[in-house]
Amino acid sequence: MSDPQPKHNQPEVCNCKPEELRIGVFVCHCGLNIAGTVDVKAVAEYAKTIPDVVFVKENRYTCADPGQAEIRKAIKEQKLNRVVIAACSPRMHEPTFRRTVSEAGLNPFLYEMANIREFASWCHQSDPKAATERAKDSVRMAVAKVRLMQPLQTIEVPVTNKALVIGGGIAGMNAALDLAEMGFKVYMLENTQSIGGHMAALDKTFPTLDCSICIEGPKMVDCARHPNIIIFANSELVKVDGYIGNFKVKIRKNPRYVIPEKCTGCGECKDACPIEYPNEWDMNLGTRKAISVPFDQAVPLIYSINKDYCIECFKCTEVCGERQAIDFNQKPEEVDFDVGAIIVSTGFDVYLPYDMPLLGYGKYPNVIISMEFERLILAAGPTGGKVIRQSDGQKPHRIAFIQCVGSRDKSHYPYCCNFGCMYTLKHVVQLKEKYKEDVEVYVFYMDIRSPGKGYEEFYDRARERGVNFIRGRVSRIDEDPTTHNLVVHSEDSLLGQPIEVEADMVVLATAAIPKKGSEDIARILNLSRGSDGFFMEAHPKLKPMDAPTDGVFYAGACAGLKDIPASVSQGSGAASRAATVISKPKWKIEPIISIVDESKCRNKTAKCGVCQDKCPYGAIRIEQGKPAQIITASCHGCGTCVAECPQHAISQMHFTDAQIMAQIRAALEDKPEEKILAILCNWCSYAGADLAGISRFDYPASVRAIRVMCSGRVAREFVLEALRLGAGMVMLGACHLPYDCHYISGNYKMKARTDALKGMLTKLGMSPERFRVEYISAAEGIHYAEVIKEIDAEMKALGKEKIQAENAKLKPILDNMLKRK
Amino acid sequence: MPFKTVKQESADALTLEWMLHVKNYKLTLDKNRCVGCQVCTLACPKEAIKTVKQPKLPGEKAKKAKVDIDMAKCAFCGICDVTCPYGAVKVTLNGVHDLSILAKDSYPTLVRDIKVDTHLCQKECVECEPACPLSLITVSKVGFDGNPVQDVAALSPAAKKRVQITIDIQKDYCPTCRVCEFKCAAGAIKVKKAFEGTISINKGKCPQGCSDCLDVCPIKGALVLGDDKKVHVNEMFCTYCGACKNVCPVEDALSVKRTKVNHTFIHSGTWNKALERITSPTDAIKELKAQAAESRRKVVEKRFLSEALKNE
Question: Which chain B positions have a beta carbon within 8 Å of A284's beta carbon?
């Protein structure tokens, strides 16, 4: 998303120098969690010796009420204007203490945490002395940073109290209806001719076997009738600009060649039309007229002409007569509107196994997929509910169902489709109850997965009906060319022997795959997709409906496959998540964003725009001859632009170059050649390091860690400065490529930058192992510990002398390079 | 989506199929009947049909142009079926040749106006049967006893008188060339052409010794090689199909223009466009004007009639 709207309510930066720095340091015992390893007293005593520190206090539990009360009291009594809390990880209690200091009247951005639990006491239990040293350094680093901190104000942006729902399936409809009921205006975008999604094409729903369209139809009509819902069917998303609370949406209404306002849905045109074409909605089993609706219950009930097949005889126009609803000259029409939140509910597609030739789909007429079977057994379907074979139109007597076609298959789609077992159970129960003894049913399965209310009982029902379940992967299907009967070759893994079954018809339960066009939606809304192609949530457990882009939410199968009840719940869930945004008149944004020093920006005089290119969110606007502008509300605060700016004209609030440099200098004040300087990104590698501590993985205490929001923030200068100061080793921690980055692509930007940097440093005579980039996820505590062990061992192997010698050679060059800074 | 289409080509036929689970649309082009003319290409509303000129090998006669149909564009409407003067295309639904465009009045049928009055036939005569260049005519003679008669000349004059003659013409495949009419000495056959128009050869441009047009012309006698080694036309037999035009090696040497198509009365956008392409915009307008005049006449007649009834 790029934003054309100049939005400039940047945080006010207090440039007035505070009269005098009065820093208070609070060292937490955390019971014995910290005090058991780290000599807290020594740390506190050391803190008193750091310049500008005027007050030091130990607490048993800083985060408990008495601990917090002491901080508040000290701020007031000691007139503290900066606070350092040496306790646990900021990922744990930073928000808690922000509240504490602001309750005492101090700006919440004037405090910093020193992580001496996860990063000292817990991970260096075997070496309390080194742990204490690391804790002292951590406090020194925190004090160094807090000295340079500035008070920041939370940013507020106005909110448009409307929502857009993309995709009118069962999840999207529920989201739209809930929001509409709450009183919000909802735009519903659907790219096919009718809302309803896959559910409208189903016959029955498991495990209750109630008719799908009978329960969904009324909801579809509710959507159409609701005064707060506007449906744009047969339309597509073109562009979305803006940010949470203020999205500007552009959609395109594709021509139907029928004027919606004039079409009464009578269907006389359909009767007059001589041309039929395969009905995609019927899985092309049957046909529809060149002017028609995809199915009788379509909502909105507006006919459409398919110009690919229409022969333009104008018989429809003739019968439409005075209603004049048909317009052969209709053109695509673009519509713009504003919304405050967007719900993505684009659903999934069904995989067609053309690329699995051994199963013969597309080659043998009697091999069909489950969705086709669904249309066959449906009473309103093209065969009127008769299950018949394509080859001869006869009813099959032996039907084989094959599970997991393409699903749970490493060479196709490795994931489980989540509902394949259940819909096959539904199909076999339907068949057995419809044709009784007249049909023999085989199900070839890997595992029957039936975890849901009433699902296992439904499996029992299928078994009681006499369905033959054979556990085994089907290797191939052969066809008898005269009878068109099929022979299924499989193994029976329970008997441990091969098995052959002759069947009249084979039904393949194929994989469900990401919706075609997901990549466009992802591009337009700046969403990331997982390796499976489904949209990535902001957090898979705790924010399952939140997209990484603020103000965008997911409902249903587009973010991972779900059955109907789960999609319905997510629809309502996403509606409530969206309501948390659009129910407010204003939205607050964290001020940890980038700002441009207009006097330094090169774009004023030359064509630059580096920051615009590198910003993963399109939050920077470049106009020729003007300094770069940051769209405050679009900026997510990764800091990539800061690291990329060739003029150092951009800085990130709360993570300024000066603050991070001060931390580096503080970390490397003493015996730098024996230290590993680690710069970790907040979301993955810092969390991974936290996990190493939480898991009590012991690793060498030579490491000194600095937190940044994203690895993309790590400027070359940070590495150069660390080496100039003589650091033994430098390590960058980032999220895994390609999809893990919390800021979409910050890790890629960092990689490009550091690849070049490493080459240069090696050329200058640095041993290549002294600078490395590691990709560590939040779950890889053990990996972090291993990496630090490895780096420590390498450092020892290089030896202090070699490092010092290299540093002596490097220093003058680096001094020169950093002089500009 | 699993939309199965099949396109097959053999020496005798080109078939296109939509293999749907419950419906089977099939188009068959009979290559033996197809003459490689221009009509289906021009009539097709989806522009799915192409006529491809075949290379002429040295020492061989010219080959008729080949008709190819684009599966992706074809809508199986059957317009080519209805319009083909030689009846070379058949479109069926589930094996039944019953076109929806005709049932729904979306397209007219060609009028092959052939009148045969067997009373006028000479009892011995079978001239028309061998005369038909496409062998579509069968003459059968039945005696007074109901048995087929082989040799009329051998019968007694009385028996001869009582011989009944039936002339069976496969109208669906008849391009209305009028050769049979011309050959019939008794004037028993009257044919009105389905396509009317003009054909002319620019003598200056027609290359001497070339007989490509003549080689592909399905109606023997419509084009003749003159003593001057140039091709001459016999307008009487020409069906104005344009097969000759497709193979003529020299631009503007041969011109075929259709000016009128005899068809059943219809109101259809598709037909108007097809007519415009088959004939010319001006000729199509003529028909539209005539149609308009016809409907005006009907309106007036109706009103006049109702007033007349009122007065009564």
Answer: 1-4, 20-21
Structure confidence at residue A507 (pLDDT): 97
In this prediction, residue B301 carries a pLDDT of 87
pLDDT confidence of residue A13: 47
- pLDDT value at A7 more than 50: no
Helix ranges (H only) for chain B are: 39-43, 79-83, 100-103, 128-131, 157-161, 179-183, 212-216, 243-247, 269-278, 281-311
Whether B106 sits inside 8 A of A274 (CB atoms) is yes
- Chain B neighbors of A272, CB-CB under 8 A: 104
d(CA A312, CA A293): 18
ipTM at complex level? 0.89
Peptide bond into B55 cis (omega under 30): no
* Residues of the domain holding B298: 280-312
What is the arithmetic mean of pLDDT over A196-221?
Answer: 95
Return residues 26-85 of B near A (CB < 8 Å). 45-46, 75-77, 79
Strands (E), B99-162: 113-116, 137-142
The verdict on a CB contact (< 8 Å) between B2 and A309 is: no
The answer to whether A737 and A770 have CB atoms below 8 angstroms apart is no
Percent of chain B with pLDDT over 70: 99
| CA-angle at A180, arms to A340 and A551, nearest 5° | 25
Closest to B2 (Cβ–Cβ): which among A284, A314, A382? A284
Beta-carbon separation of A274 and B101 below 8 A: yes
Architecture of the domain spanning A349-513: 3-Layer(bba) Sandwich (3.50)
Q: Answer whether A25's CB lies under 8 Å from A58's CB.
A: no
For the stretch A695-744, pLDDT in tens is 999 999 999 999 999 999 999 999 999 999 999 999 999 998 877 788 88
Indicate the class that CATH gives domain A593-644. Answer: alpha beta
Chain A interface includes B280 (CB < 8 A):
no
Contact status, residue B283 vs residue B259, Cβ threshold 8 Å: yes
Which residues in chain B have their CB less than 8 angstroms from residue A362's CB?
2, 4
Tokens of A549: 């882009």
Cβ neighbours of A283 in B, within 8 Å: 1-2
CATH architecture of the domain with residue range A155-254+332-347+517-588: 3-Layer(bba) Sandwich (3.50)
Supply angle C-alpha B126, B131, B134, rounded to 5: 125
Question: Which residue in B20, B75, B105 is closest to A309 by CB distance?
Answer: B75
Q: Which residues contact A351 (CB under 8 A, 6 or more apart)?
A: A405, A406, A412, A413, A510, A511, A512, A513
Domains of chain A, residue spans = 1-154, 155-254+332-347+517-588, 256-330, 349-513, 593-644, 655-821
The Cα–Cα gap between A476 and A25 comes to 71
pLDDT at B212 over 80: yes
pLDDT over threshold 90, residue B152: no
CB pair distance less than 8 Å for A284 and B79 = no
Q: Render pLDDT for A392-406 as a digit per residue (tens, 0 to 9).
A: 999 999 999 999 999
| Domain A655-821 class in CATH | alpha beta
Average confidence (pLDDT) over A190-207: 95
Distance separating alpha carbons of residues B30 and B88, to the nearest angstrom = 5
DSSP structure string for B2-63? --EEEEEE-SSEEEEEEE-SS-EEEEEEETTT----SHHHHH-TT--EEEEPPPPPTTSPPP
Is residue B273 included in any domain, yes or no?
no
Q: What is the pLDDT of residue A337?
A: 97
Q: State how far the alpha carbon of B140 is from the alpha carbons of A268, A774, A784, B102, B164, in Å.
A: 49, 96, 100, 32, 8
Between the CA of residue A492 and those of A439, A489, A502, what are the distances in Å? Answer: 22, 10, 15
Percent of chain A scored above 70 by pLDDT? 97
CB proximity under 8 Å: B 213-272 to A: 267-271
User: Mean pLDDT over all residues of chain A?
Assistant: 92
